[in-house]
Amino acid sequence: MKKDIFIIGSGFSSLAAACYLAKAGCKVTVFEKNATIGGRARQYKKEGFTFDIGPTWYWMPDVFERFFNDFQKKPSDYYQLIKLSPAYQVYYGIRDFITIADNLPDIINTFENIEKGSGSELKKFMEQAKTNYEIAIKDLVYRPGVSPLELLTPETAFKIGQFISNISKEVRKRFKNKKLIQVLEFPVLFLGAKPQDTPAFYSFMNYADFGMGTWHPKNGMYSVILAIEKLAKELGVTILTNSPVQKIVVENKKTTGIIVNGKKKDCDIVLSGADYHHSESLLDANYRSYTEEYWGKKIFAPSSLLFYVGFDKKIDHVEHHTLFFDVPFENHAKAIYDNPDWPEEPLFYASFPSKTDDSAAPQGKEAGIFLIPLAPGIKDNEEIREKYFTIIMDRFEKLTGQVVKENILFKASYCVNDFIKDYNSYKGNAYGMANTLFQTAFLRPKLKSKKVDNLYFTGQLTVPGPGVPPSLISGKLVSEMILKKVNKSKKILL
User: Fold this and answer.
1) Which pTM value belongs to this model?
2) Would you give the distance in Å from CA 180 to the centre of its chain?
3) pLDDT tens across 310-345, in order?
4) CA 66 to CA 54: how far, in whole Å?
């Protein structure tokens, strides 16, 4: 008999899980609260411009390839990838920047030209980062976070020191130039914590960066969502939008369905890819595995203030991805992690997808996405957003040596309140729970409910962690856990 499975949310992890479960013969229905699918990876369109609302970086192409290969498909069956050359640019002052090439030999030369001897040090650092990547991405992250024994392998036994040390220490052992240090510490920010709080083993993110390159899916990251949606429908998945779930129904410690748009719907298994904290709020209090105190003590990845801006001209002196590290990172980091507040001098990031992709903006115009990382849970209103838009645009003009404010056709913003409204995000976080030493693998919230039978979770608050590739992996891990239970039940019946 086919198992009837309901999935809450339609982000990367939910859609991935839906594909695996449908392939195994389950009847799968996805319920999405918003009018469009994709979760945080939706799109915003206006006046011929197209913006990715959420993720804009495509790293770890091998994870996407592995996902589609599980269905005898390739990414190229659904979307076209463009390797960015250069990968990105980092500004440190007025017309003072480093350009990161699309290949490691050129990046090594860039380092050597800035700090004598750093080229050979980078080569050694990257050899270690590659080894870590092979251990992590090809093995460790595909484990379900059930037991600490999952981390004990012959390979990790030789890496124990890298779980105790941190990225910041390891980078500073090898490099003295502040610019190079910032470039090497940047990738771990995707994991949601400060470099000094991120285990050195996570240098595998540097291999994802320098070793594998930065890519852009034609028509934006949303084309990946549409690809997985198409695959899911080919496998028989039903996707329902405008379908907010109000409650997960539990009878005799077992889930029996959900209440959606005020109506009870019955199923055998519920899987939530929505925000984990919110998902548990859909349960009666006695069925929740984690308390408010638990969530309050956790280190969450940042929220963000984002601006989607249409310019009536092409923007000069920037690349597709451009980072602005012209102010002290330490002060901004304190405002995110130590004393949550709006930063006095924010670092920021800008993406101009129309540099690569003509579909992002009308001819002769530019689409710009600007992002300031923020502490989750801080005060958010239009007045504050306007203040910070002025701050970063003033600096943008000064640093890149051009006037752009008078060329703005429109802008839209997205911040803490929107993350809460659209995604029921805990404190308006943008990236989930940070991957610190004590929030890694088996120390993260579990894929399976501790208190309710047939209730499961997936996404960036559980294993393996924040980011698009980990979300795809999370969907695979939870589907394997569900299918193991389903197949065990079949054997018992036989």
Assistant:
1) 0.96
2) 24
3) 999 999 999 999 999 999 999 999 999 999 999 999
4) 23
